[in-house]
Design a protein that fits this description.
Aminopeptidase; 2 domains; alpha+beta
Length: 400
C-alpha cells in the first residue's frame, strides 16, 4: 500500500548532507526544451522499463497519442536528462501560458489525460536525473517548474526533494488530496469483506442475481490488439450512452479524443501495457473499463456503464471483478484509481490512500518571480474551488 505523505513535516538534510549535495556533480547532461515528438521513442521506452516510479500515462505510446490529437493538449515539449547515450530522465512540459493562460516564465507538466504526471526517472540515477531536468529547465529560460498531479511521496518527488534540499530550495505544494488505491498483494475476497462489509456484499450479490436474469453474467479481459480494438468500441458506445454523453464529454464525441484513445490502446496492447475489462449480461455489455499497466502497477483510466441497468450497480460489479482480477495477477502489486478525491464509487472499495497534488519547484533561491508565480497559482486554485462549489450547489438544487 502506498504511504501517505506527511505534508506538515519535511525532513531537513544535515549540514554535511547539504554540502555534499551542493558539490556533487551530476553525470547526466541536460537537453533543454525540445519538441516531445523529437525524443527517441526507443530510448523513452527503455527509460520507462527502468523508471523508479510507474506511470502508465507517461509511457511514450500513451503520451505521444495525447500530444498528437487531444484538443488543448497538443504541442508539448520535453526536458530530458541523458547519461552517455541513455535517457535517464524525461519531463513532458508546456509553458505556463499554454497550461493556464498565464504568461509567466514557468514550465508545467504536460497533462496526459490521465491524472498522474510523475515523470520517469531512472531508478539507479533518480536524483541525478531530477537535478539535470531542473538544469534543463533553467537553460530553457524557466524560473520554476510546476509538477501537476504527482504522487507527493512517490519516488520521483523524493528525488526532486533531495535536489531541492541540497540547493537550499523549498518546494511549495499548491493543492493536494488523497486518492484511492488498491493493495493487490492481499486476498481479494478478504479485502472486499473488510472494505464493504457482509451486508453490502450480500446486497451486491442480490443485484448480480437480478442482472443474471438478463443473461449469464461474465467478466471478460481483452489483452491482444484485436481483442482490445473490439472491446474499445464497446467501451466508447457505453460511455457515450451515459451522463458523460449527455454532457458532451465522452471520448467518442470529440474527434481528437477518439483518435487518441484508439491510437494509444492499439499501441499499448502490442506491449502488454493495456487491457479492457467488460462485464456482460448475456451478449450485452453493461460496464467496461480501460486499464493501463506499467511495471507492477495498474491504472484504472475510465469506466463506462449501460445506465439502463443502473439499478444493478454495473460499475460497482465490474470494479469487484477487476479487484479480484488484479489481486490474482502476480505481476501486479498495486493499482491507482486515478479518480477524483472522495470518489463515491471507488473510494469505499479500494481503501488504500496516497497523497497526490500540484507542486511548485523554484529554480533559484530568493527569486521574486517564483513568489509571483506562486501567488497567481494560489489565487487561481481558490477561484476554481469557489466555482466548483457553486456548480455543486446549483446541480443539487436542480436535482430536488
Amino acid at each position: 500500500m502506498v504511504d501517505i505523505v506527511d505534508l506538515a513535516v519535511v525532513r531537513r538534510a544535515s549540514l554535511s548532507d547539504a554540502a555534499a549535495l551542493r558539490v556533487r556533480t551530476t553525470s547526466a547532461r541536460p537537453q533543454a526544451l525540445t519538441p516531445l515528438t523529437e525524443i527517441d521513442s526507443n530510448a523513452w521506452r527503455a527509460l520507462a522499463a527502468r523508471a523508479a516510479e510507474p506511470n502508465g500515462y507517461y509511457l511514450p505510446d500513451w503520451e505521444l497519442a495525447v500530444n498528437a490529437s487531444v484538443p488543448g493538449r497538443t504541442g508539448a515539449s520535453a526536458l530530458a536528462a541523458w547519461h552517455d547515450e541513455m535517457l535517464v530522465g524525461l519531463l513532458p512540459v508546456v509553458w505556463m501560458r499554454q497550461a493556464y493562460k498565464i504568461p509567466l516564465p514557468a514550465l508545467v507538466s504536460a497533462h496526459p489525460y490521465g491524472t498522474l504526471c510523475s515523470p520517469p526517472l531512472d531508478h539507479g540515477m533518480a536524483v541525478d536525473a531530477a537535478a539535470t531536468l531542473m538544469q534543463a529547465a533553467r537553460q530553457s529560460g524557466a524560473r520554476a517548474l510546476v509538477l501537476r498531479d504527482v504522487a507527493l511521496d512517490g519516488a520521483a518527488m523524493k528525488a526532486f526533494n533531495t535536489v531541492l534540499r541540497g540547493e537550499g530550495l523549498r518546494r511549495r505544494v499548491l493543492q493536494w488530496h488523497l486518492r484511492a488505491s488498491l493493495d493487490a498483494t492481499v486476498d481479494a475476497d478478504e479485502l472486499l469483506r473488510d472494505a464493504l462489509g457482509g451486508g453490502k456484499l450480500k446486497e451486491l450479490r442480490r443485484q448480480r442475481r437480478r442482472l443474471a436474469e438478463h443473461g449469464a453474467v461474465t467478466f471478460e479481459v481483452a489483452r491482444s490488439p484485436q481483442e482490445v480494438a473490439t472491446a474499445l468500441e464497446a467501451f466508447l458506445t457505453l460511455e457515450a450512452s451515459g451522463w458523460k454523453g449527455a454532457r458532451g464529454t465522452a471520448l467518442a464525441q470529440v474527434e481528437g479524443d477518439a483518435a487518441f484513445i484508439r491510437r494509444a490502446t492499439a499501441a499499448l496492447s502490442e506491449t502488454g501495457n493495456c487491457e479492457i475489462v467488460t462485464l456482460r449480461a448475456g451478449e450485452t455489455p453493461v460496464a467496461s473499463g480501460i486499464v493501463l499497466r506499467h511495471q507492477s502497477r495498474a491504472f484504472f483510466f475510465k469506466l463506462g456503464v449501460e445506465e439502463r441497468f443502473a439499478k444493478f450497480s454495473p460499475g460497482v460489479q465490474l470494479t469487484l471483478d477487476l479487484t479480484r482480477h488484479l489481486c490474482a495477477d502476480p505481476d501486479i502489486t498495486s493499482a491507482d484509481s486515478t479518480a477524483a478525491a472522495d470518489h463515491p464509487m471507488i473510494n469505499p472499495i479500494w481503501r488504500g490512500r496516497f497523497a497526490i497534488g500540484d507542486v511548485l519547484i523554484p529554480l533559484a533561491t530568493h527569486d521574486p518571480m517564483v513568489a509571483a508565480i506562486h501567488a497567481v497559482l494560489v489565487t487561481r486554485n481558490l477561484a476554481r474551488a469557489a466555482a466548483r462549489s457553486a456548480r455543486h450547489v446549483i446541480r443539487k438544487r436542480k436535482s430536488r
